[in-house]
Each structure stands twice: as structure tokens, then as C-alpha cells.
Design a protein that fits this description.
Length: 301
């Protein structure tokens, strides 16, 4: 079982970034993730190059300046405390971040061709979804989800190729279950998407948290096969394969940020469930959602 797809905290650090995953470093073509930590009064600038990006506060607040506009992101105390606002910045732009109080910020990116306008994404507009029931209950913050099939533009955040969401799994629960995949282009049924998982795990009484992530070969692509113990700051790269479950250890809530992009002309998130485990969905209507969820909801407009 390979470990090249599990990058423990610090393994993907580069320059100012505690995580720096590019298409080149991942060995694929589209998805990127950077995590930037700024001290109080700190600032950082970067060129977007051939990719579109979303600046998402994980902890703390910042301003984002791009193309003569400045977006003030109120952010949040932590990923477990609330939904965050965010800023979208287009390809071929110069971006500057500054944080008066310091913080940690995710830069989720995808190579693209269309140059969309820079925009502010308010926390109040982020759809918060409860998915699954019982021990499969989890919360999904769909801040940059793709528009659902047959939906309208108001049901998703417009990007050219980037798809990004946040998941919170209460301690003891499983998410990304049933295992699913998106490594084939099957029109109307499955998208071909590369995916990055970035984890933060809640501590309990000062004890750092942990969880587990499984990826198993699907018969397509590289035969990705991972069973990893994951901790805060870890990433898992998923070029292909059945991914899930993501298992939160009892007493330690699990957060992960998903970043996806692929070669398809349409920005779709279409998945295929593992045939051995798809039956679990039929049990969900008979169970209540975990009463610990939602962990929080989006603020009022």
C-alpha cells in the first residue's frame, strides 16, 4: 500500500506555505491547494497564473486585494466555530493578503481557461447541508460547490473549473461513505476529477486528535491505495480510486477541505458509489441525523 498520496503535516510545506500542492507536485493536471499562515500584521502576495483561486479563512480574518478591489474577510475563530466568508480571485492576476490579527488561510485552486471577475462570497450565502444519518451523519459547507444537475446558478458558486467544499464529521462517525469515485468520464453519470483532502482534527482536553482515511483501487488510473492515520495539517491526494470512509476517532471531530478539478468541459460533481457498499444509503431514512449536527449554521443575511 503506497504512502505517496498521504502527506503528513509539514511534508508539503514550501516557502511561506505550510501546504503547497500544485499540479506539478501532485503529478496531475488541474487541482491545487496552499495553506498560508500569517502572523499578526503579516502580508503575502502571489500571482494566480493559469489558475482561479478562492481565499478561505480557516482561522482568523484578512483583506484580499486584487485588480483594484479589496475584500474584507471576517473569517472565523476556527473551522469548528462557524461558516466563513471568502474571496474568489481570477487567473492572470496579482493578489495580496494582509491580516491584522494573523491567521491561517486556505488557497484552493484549479487550472482554468475562462477569466471570471473577482468576487466576495458572504458566509450568509453558504449552503450548509446535513448528509447521511446515524453514524454516517456529517455536515457539508458547500461554499464553492458545483451547480447541481438541472439546478440554477443560485444553487452553487460560479467558477470555471474549481469545486471546493468543507466537511465536518462528529467524533466516532464515518463520512465519505459509502466509498465513491469520480475517475472516469461517463456523461450524466460520473465526472473525472482530481481531489485533495486537507484535514484538521479537534483536540480533546488538550490531546491532539486523529482519524483515518481510506482510498482503494477502482481499476482505473494509478491504482491508488491508501490507509492513513491523519492528523491536523495532513493532506491526502486522490487522483483516482474509491475514496472513503473518512473516520473520525471518538471524541475528536474531523474537518476536511475538499478541492476538486478535472479535464471535463463541464464543471460537474458526479460520483459513482462502490457497488459493495451503496446499500447503506437505503438505511438512512430509518435513522435520525446525529443530534450533534449541525455544528453551526450560516449566519443570517
Amino acid at each position: 500500500m503506497t504512502t505517496t498520496h498521504h502527506l503528513p503535516a509539514g511534508k508539503a510545506a514550501n516557502g511561506p506555505y505550510t501546504v503547497d500542492i500544485s499540479p506539478e507536485s501532485a503529478g496531475w493536471g488541474h487541482s491545487s491547494l496552499r495553506v498560508l499562515e500569517l502572523p499578526a500584521g503579516g502580508w503575502h502576495s502571489f500571482d494566480t497564473g493559469d489558475s482561479e483561486w478562492i481565499v478561505l479563512p480557516l482561522a482568523g480574518s484578512c483583506t484580499v486585494a486584487v485588480g483594484g478591489e479589496t475584500f474584507r474577510l471576517a473569517g472565523r475563530e476556527s473551522v469548528f466555530s462557524g461558516v466563513s466568508d471568502f474571496a474568489y480571485v481570477p487567473r492572470d492576476a496579482q493578489v495580496s493578503l494582509a491580516s491584522r490579527g494573523g491567521g491561517r488561510f486556505a488557497l484552493t485552486g484549479a487550472r482554468c481557461t475562462e477569466r471570471l471577475p473577482a468576487r466576495y462570497g458572504p458566509a450568509a450565502a453558504v449552503p450548509v447541508e446535513l448528509r447521511g444519518t446515524g453514524t454516517c451523519s456529517r455536515q457539508v459547507n458547500n461554499f464553492a460547490a458545483a451547480v447541481p444537475a438541472g439546478g440554477d446558478a443560485g444553487q452553487g458558486f460560479a467558477c470555471d473549473q474549481l469545486i471546493a467544499v468543507e466537511i465536518i464529521t462528529p467524533g466516532g462517525n464515518w463520512s465519505s461513505f459509502p466509498p465513491h469515485k469520480h475517475d472516469e468520464h461517463r456523461p450524466g453519470e460520473e465526472s473525472e476529477l482530481e481531489e485533495i483532502y486537507y484535514f484538521e482534527i479537534a483536540a480533546h482536553d488538550g490531546t491532539p486528535g486523529l482519524g483515518y482515511q481510506r482510498v482503494s483501487p477502482s481499476g482505473h488510473g494509478r491504482g491508488t491505495d491508501v490507509l492513513a492515520e491523519v492528523r491536523s495539517g495532513d493532506t491526502v491526494l486522490i487522483p483516482d480510486g474509491w475514496h472513503g470512509p473518512s473516520m473520525a476517532a471518538p471524541g475528536h471531530d474531523m474537518y476536511y477541505l475538499n478541492v476538486m478539478a478535472g479535464p471535463g468541459a463541464e464543471r460537474d460533481w458526479l460520483i459513482r458509489d462502490h457497488p459493495d457498499h451503496a446499500w447503506i444509503r437505503a438505511t438512512w431514512p430509518d435513522q435520525p441525523v446525529d443530534p450533534r449536527l449541525p455544528r453551526y449554521t450560516a449566519p443570517s443575511q
